[in-house]
Amino acid sequence: MYIYSSKKQKKTGLWINRKLNSKFGIDIELGAVIGYGLDIPHHMGIVITKKARIGCNLSLKQNTTVGNKQGLKEDDFIIIGNNVDIGANTCIIGSITIG
């Protein structure tokens, strides 16, 4: 949500994340880079790691994980390009590029 942030922005990001998590079960870690146009039409069970680099106009369906596996190197990222549609019950794990 916020990769370059002040303490106030980080605090706001954590507050937003807590609200999303408690109401919808959405967990977007601070440090995830997400372009404009993120669409979550069925907002339940979404997890996005801080190692995600996501382009514009991503559509995520319910129960989707964009996560990292243990042992992922510091410079390894999950890269999702522009205009990607990810269906329900999908797990994207590890250092991978999509789109």
From TrEMBL:
GO molecular function: transferase activity
Matching InterPro entries: Trimer_LpxA-like_sf
Record SUPFAM superfamilies: Trimeric LpxA-like enzymes
Stored Gene3D superfamilies: Hexapeptide repeat proteins
Key words, A-Z: Transferase
UniProt protein name: Serine acetyltransferase
Organism: Salmonella enterica (Salmonella choleraesuis)
